[in-house]
User: Fold these one by one.
Assistant:
Number 1:
Amino acid sequence: MPKNQNLVTQKSGVSTNVILTIVVVVVAVLVIGGVLLFNRSGDSGGDAGAGQPPVPAEVLRKPDSNVLTEAPDGKVTVTEFLDYQCSTCHSYYSQLMKKVENDYAGRITFVPRNFPLQMHPLGQNAARAAEAAALQGKFKEMYHALFDDWAGWATVNASELNSDEAKANAKFEQYAQQIGLDVNRFKQDMVSPKVQAKIDRDVADGEAAGVSGTPTIFINGHKFEPSSGNVEQAFRQQLDQELAK
């Protein structure tokens, strides 16, 4: 009987220690979380990587990188790593980036970079279409065509991405014709090693900059990570702060 009683006492002691340990850990997490939340709630607008060293400009933009709008003074550069079939990239384009391109034209340099993800079956094809158009001086027009008619090639329905390369490529050729490209040259360039090398270099630069998903946006080398619910307001505020420096 005393032996059994001792076993019970030992087990109770272990359980109590475990419970106390859990309580201490939970309290610590809550305290630390509260501090982080408090500090974060004090932010205004967007956090463009304040306190972190910027990604070097030569990583974010190469001499042959495509540009949508360029500022003569080069004061503010926005670099976006994107996947044309990414639904979030399309939402950013429709609700933010297209407006920013227009509203800040001539005041910022806007550099889109390719970062097609494996989860998007036509991301590579669309990137090749954009780069093939760039070889004929029509990147901007193809960039807009791909996003403006996103539902026409990127999706089957509201919940399913398109994976039919033949149909997508036919759409891309249609855009090429509409924006005045030499379609035969466009088709050849789409499958050329030169175009693929450009995309691969963009991806490598993105990885070097810490990009793991799309869209990932940098403002003057700092990653844009909004801390408020209004992404557009945070983005514009960050641009205006950089322009005012």
Number 2:
Amino acid sequence: MQHPPDTLHARKRRKARAMIVSAAFQLFAEHGFDNVTVASIAERAEVGRTTFFRYFGDKQQVLFADDDAEVDRMCAYVREKATQPIGDDLHTAVGLLREANAATRPHAALSPAHSAVLVRLLAESTELRSRYLLTQHQRAVRLAGALVEAGTPENVAVLAAHTAMACELTAMRLSETPEAFGPRLDEAHLLLRDIGRQAAS
């Protein structure tokens, strides 16, 4: 698939967006989420409020700004790797989503420093945890759709997507640092396999 040319305008837009994200995370790290305003983010990024709202609907959205792109990559991975219909094998469907997560995580937009700030803010703010849960639910809906396109029955696809979501939420809850997220996620998936073996025995 051909990508559109990388124009000067596109580069300027990416730069402005990146400056807003960087400024927001700096301020959130310094003052917490509730004490930071859109105006202060715009001022730190050296842009106007109008420019801020060109890219983000509110300050919460800055924290989850790249979720859509990450889910796009995961869905593309599922469609590309599922060369044969998955069928009703829940273990295979969950495993494919785990692979998609691992394959796309190195391309995540958030730096380790920004991820650390996000983990801290989620621990501190009920409002942000609610927004995070909403983004996770939306991700599960889209991933279930990708699994259905890959030949998975809808009931298995929905359960697989929400099971994968539960593993991610567990890893997020138990991770004290961003670096711990991957190992914690592996632990959650290992526990699932143990449950499957126990049920089969």
Number 3:
Amino acid sequence: MRQMVVTEALNALSRAHREVLTETVMRKRTVDEAADALGIPVSTVKSRIYYALRALHVLLEERGMAT
């Protein structure tokens, strides 16, 4: 059940936010490696990670999953 809720929340993120989380969390790439893979500046990756995690927290909180 928990995995399904997290998957739904991730799917509710913008494409850009999902991409940076996929590169850094799921593929375990550094910010520099993610920037190279996505063809965007390192500062953009850092910013998107920050806002993606904030949005994910809100989405999980709405679903009763945030701590």
